[in-house]
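Review form for a predicted model. The reviewer records the input and the model, then writes brief findings.
Reviewer: anonymous (R2)
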Amino acid sequence: MTKLIVVVGATGKQGGSVARTFLALPGWRVRAVTRKTDSPAALALTEAGAEVVQADLGDADLTALKAAFAGANAIFVNTDFWETYRPAAAALMAAGKDAAPAGRQAFDYETGCRKHAADAAAASALPTLERFVLSSLTSLVGGSLDPSKFTRTFHPEAKNWGVDYIEQHVSALAPKLSVIVPAAYNTNRLMVPTKTGSDDATYTFLSPILPQTHIATIDPETGVGPFVRCLVEDEPAGTKLLAYDSNQTMAEIVAIFHRVTGKPATFAPVTTHQLVATMGGSWEVLQVVDYLNEHDTYEHGEPGYIKPSQLKAPPVRPSFEAWAKTYDWGGAI
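Model under review:
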C-alpha cells in the first residue's frame, strides 16, 4: 500500500525538493498543491508523476485546501513571506516612506496562511495523518535574553508563529507536528562578494557577518527534500531540525571562494546599522545577522532543536565548497 504526502508550495524551491524526493521513493505518491496548476513548474511535476491540485493558503474558505489534504499520511507546508513584503516595501520606499510597515503586512498575511493550513489539516487529514512537517524559522525575540533588541523584523516571527499556533491551539494536530528550519541558502547575497576596480581586482565580501560567526548553508532545491524524508520516515513526531548541508564560518566562506575561483578575496566588515543607514539594507534581513553574531546559532544550536548529525540516518550532503565548485560564480558576481 502506498502512502500519500501532500506538498504545499510544491512549485517553490523547498516544496519542489520535497516533491521530487518523495516521487523517487518507493511506496509514496505525491499530491502537489499550487495556486497555478498550469505553471511550467506545476506541469513539470505532473509530468514527473505528481497529482497536482489547486488551492490557495491565502483563501479563508478552506474547502479546496481540505480536499487537497484529505487522505494524507504526511503534509509538508512552506509559506512565502517575501512575496508579500517585497512589493509592499518597494511601494513604500518609492513614496519616500519607511518600509517597516511592509513587515507587519507580510506577517499578517503569512500567519493567516499558516493558520489556514493547520486548520484545514486538523479538519480533514487527521484520520490518516502521521506527520505534519512545517518549514519554519526560530524566533529572534523568543531566543534572546533581551527581546527588546530584536523587534524590527517580522520574517522569523511569522514562521515561528505557525509552530506556536499548532502547539498551543490545535491540540489534535500538535502530536503529529515536526519542524524543519532550513539554513541560509547557498546563494544568499550576504555570502556573495562584489568586484572592485579592474578585471584583475580583488573581490570583496562586504558583510555584517562576523568572520568567526558560523553560517550554515543549504542548497534548498536538493537538500530540503532529503531532510524532510528523515522527519517523515525515520524520526518521531515532535522532532525539530536545524537543516543544513554544511556549517562554516564567514572567514571560511571567503577562503572557499578564493580556492574555488582562484580570485583574490578580502573581507570588509560593515555593521548592520551602516547597511540600513547608507546602503538601503532592510532590518527584515539584517536583524537576523545581529542575532547570529550574538548567538552563533549553528555552532551552539537552539534549545529544542537537533542538528543533522543527530538524525538516525543523516542524508549525505555536499559541503558548501563542493557546491561552490559547481556554481556559476561568473553570473553571480
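Findings: The chain has one domain: 3-331.
Further findings: The first strand starts at residue 3 and ends at 8.
Recommendation: see findings above.
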